Amino acid sequence: MRALLPPMIAVVPLHPSLPFSFALLALATTHPAAAEDLFADGESVPQILTATRLKQSPAAVPGSVTLLDRQLIESSGARSVPELMRLVPGMMVGYLSGNQGMVNYHGSSVSEARRMQVLIDGRSVYRAGLATVDWADIPVALEDIDRIEVFRGPNTVSYGANALMGVINIITRSPSESIGTRLKVTRGKRGVNDWYASQGFNWQDGDMRLSLSGLRDDGFDHDDEGNDFRDSTRANRFNLSTTHRLDAQQTLDWQLAAKEGTNQRPYNYEPVFDRLIPGGIAPGDNNSDVVARDYAGSMRWTFDMNPRHSLYVQGAAQHWDRNQEWVACDAALAFSPQLAELWSLNPVLTKRVFRLRPLPAGTTPREAELAQQVLQQMQEQVTTQQPAVCGDVNQNIRETRYDLELQDTYSVTDSLRLLSGAGYRREEVASETYFGGKLNNDILRTFAHLEWTIDPHWILQGGAMLENDRNSGESLTPRLAVNYLITPSHGLRAVYSEAVRTPDMAENNLDLRYEVSNLSPSVNGQNSAYYFSRVTGTGGLKEEHMRSRELGYNGLFSNLGLSIDLKLFREDVSDMISEAFTSDGYTPSNANSMSFQGAELQADWRLSASDRVRLTYAYVDQTATEDRDLRLSARNSGSAAWMREWAHGWSSSVIYYGADALNERRFERLDLRLAKRVRLGSANLQIAGVLQQRLDDEALTWKENLYDDRQQFYLSAELGF
User: Fold this and answer.
1) CA-CA distance, 420 to 641, in Å (whole number)?
2) pLDDT > 90 in the chain, percent
3) How many CA atoms lie within 13 A of 679 on its CB side?
4) Mean pLDDT (whole number) for 139-144
5) Which of 351, 385, 419 is the last residue of a domain?
6) What is the C-alpha to C-alpha distance for residues 90 and 103, in angstroms, rounded to an integer?
7) Coil, helix or strand for 534?
8) 27 and 43 assigned to the same domain
9) Are residues 609 and 711 in the same domain?
10) Residues 632 and 703 grouped into a single domain
11) Backbone φ, ψ for residue 490 (5° rounding)
């Protein structure tokens, strides 16, 4: 390589602003000998599965993929999947509270992963009822994860609606790689108290892993008013993963998972008619916590007919149960039928009546009649000095999903591969509060992907997903990509794709109405009654649409131990649903749009057998018709990591994370991890300490999210035998 440097520099002057990967490409393509040496393949190329469902080298993938491997996951010292996502370029990570993480690719207004698909071993954990992923409740321990593949870009072609902006695919360790016993405990500041235990064993034709784990922490210390923040996490998880080898061609994999726990929520209810009660209304409760229970099971039968042809059938069932109950108090007027009718007709006018203001011009006769009756009831409340009424309120919701999928992979020739499949999904949701009962939806889909290796350098790929959603109608999403392989481990790509997101059940069918039970004292002789406020959706919403264009480069420089991915992109989302529902009403529409353009870079450099450096950076320029869609979109974000294996079982990692503005708040943090591995006979003991130091002086995402200090520390001990 030294002999090549002088002639290369003479031919190509390197500008300081030229990206490193482009500089390497320019050098190589201007000198044949340089290309031969620089792009030599000296080691095996990793395989990516998430992009198209086909195993492909990163250089051949029709898009950008970030791979978080087992070493990186462990070296990060992270305790949750959202924290790991800080290592993904362009991923925006924030928090509503200590147990409500927010993860979005490139960002938008919503706090949940509404426009991303999240999978665990191919099973979607995206909840369709309220369009969310409960990150604190994902029923998998980080210790069971082998790797996480993140497809950065639209991929409804492979995974259907809601993979609008990306796919996070969590792939767990094979039971065959989990033989033996592992025990781990973690303790630290802010109430961190985690534990993990697993047992893996095998027999002649199979392997099994059973793991139990728990997650505990106290969340943020206080809010912006100095009050204790009720946002702790308490979770217990169960996982069973099994592989049966039926014969040389067939395998049967099945999994069971369960999670139960409590996510604290601050008590936010404020009485509307506090001033009508002498002495005011005391809080009814201080506990509106969410009791969360998740259950999941899946089974996959794989039939490898021959080296060119394989088939699998997978079935999965999941159930999410969220119980959130509390006691609320208000004046008896809050349950007035007349007030409820007036509110449904005109919430703005109703508020004027509350403030004893004159009725405006344009008030209808019916509104005026109801307003007069409400005023009389308010006066009667004051005159008779009726006591406050208290009762039980809930936001309980249950969701269930059934999935059945068939996939066929066939190598037609050495240069032509075809993947095709079909699936059926049944979604069910039940909530008296959110939907006034039960709703369901049926989704049918067929998909295909064709990979044509025209010659050793050119690959043409195309795919499409045809999906029929009973509630939203039919959609067809295509993708077309051209990859130019300089070598099998270096490729340029040009990708065009379209994607959709179907409205969730709440957007189309919201009927938010609180029934208060066990009233004391009773109201009109009834022990239960509906609160006057009611929020309903308008229905008839269309799908959101995205068009994405991408140019990129992916390369593995084996002689240098360096892998690079560079992406230039433009994404346009139309027919966006950006409105949030409030107590004043809900009028969702497809009237909004948003555009992203920018560049992303990730580099992973294994300098030696002991040292690894990893860099990510994203520049995202956004425009939107709705200002709230820009809240969770940082223009500049990234990470820098150095991991090292020292002598005598010592290892360390230093990772910097930064984002210039998430909800107008800067985020910078430096994480240090130091670990020592000790051999105890046939067992291994690892002691690790993690120190997280905030370098900024901001609240985390929202003004309420505050800690007493900017430093977090926890210590873990893991024993394997």
Assistant:
1) 39
2) 77
3) 4
4) 95
5) 385
6) 11
7) strand
8) no
9) yes
10) yes
11) -135, 120
Q: Counting runs of H as helices and runs of E as strands, what totals does the chain give?
A: 10, 32
pLDDT tens-digit map of 287-307: 889 999 999 999 999 999 999
Phi/psi at 270 (5° precision) = -125, 125
Instruction: Say whether both 429 and 347 belong to one domain.
Output: no
Q: In sequence order, what are the residues at sequence separation of 6 or more whose Cβ sits closer than 8 angstroms to the Cβ of residue 357?
A: none
What H or E segment, with its residue span, contains residue 116?
strand 116-120
Q: Dig out the tokens for 461 from the structure.
A: 């790929």
In 577-625, DSSP assigns E strands to 592-605, 611-624
Q: With cut-offs at 50, 70 and 90, classify the pLDDT of residue 108.
A: confident
Handedness of CA 15, 16, 17, 23 (dihedral sign): positive
pLDDT at residue 46, as a whole number: 78
Of 303, 54, 261, the C-alpha closest to 157 is 54
Same domain, 327 and 346: no
The CA–CA distances, whole Å, from 145 to 113, 178, 333 equal 20, 11, 54
Per-residue pLDDT at 478 exceeds 80: yes
Asked if 463 and 507 sit in the same domain, the reply is yes
User: Residues 72, 77, 79, 80: what is their CA dihedral angle, to the nearest 10 degrees?
Assistant: -30
The total number of structural domains in the chain stands at 3
Segment 239-268 shows an average pLDDT of: 94
One-letter amino acid at 518 equals N
Residues 6+ apart with CB under 8 A from 416: 450, 451, 452, 453
Q: Please report the pLDDT score of residue 3 as a whole number.
A: 36
Report the pLDDT averaged over residues 234-241: 97
| Cα–Cα dist 378/372, whole Å | 10
Which residue would you say has higher pLDDT here, 10 or 95? 95
Helix (H, G, I), strand (E, B) or coil at 709: coil
Whether 241 and 369 map to the same domain: the answer is no
Report which DSSP code applies to 610. S
Closest CA to 479 of 399, 562, 548, 410: 548
Neighbours of 191 (CB within 10 A): 15
Same structural domain, 347 and 260: no
Instruction: Determine the residue type at 226.
Output: G
CATH number at residue 489: 2.40.170.20
State in Å, rounded, how far the first CA of the chain is from the last one.
Answer: 45
**Residue 645: partners with Cβ closer than 8 Å, 6 or more residues away:** 609, 610, 611, 651
Residue 8: is its pLDDT beyond 50? no
Report the amino acid identity of residue 651: S
User: Looking at this protein, which amino acid is placed at residue 527?
Assistant: N
Which residue, 639, 624, 622, 535, is CA-closest to 578? 624
Residue 337, domain extent: 332-385
- The radius of gyration of the chain from alpha carbons, rounded to an integer in Å, stands at 28
> pTM of the entire structure?
0.91
β-bridge pairing 490-501 and 511-520: unpaired
Contact 185, 194 (CB under 8 A): yes
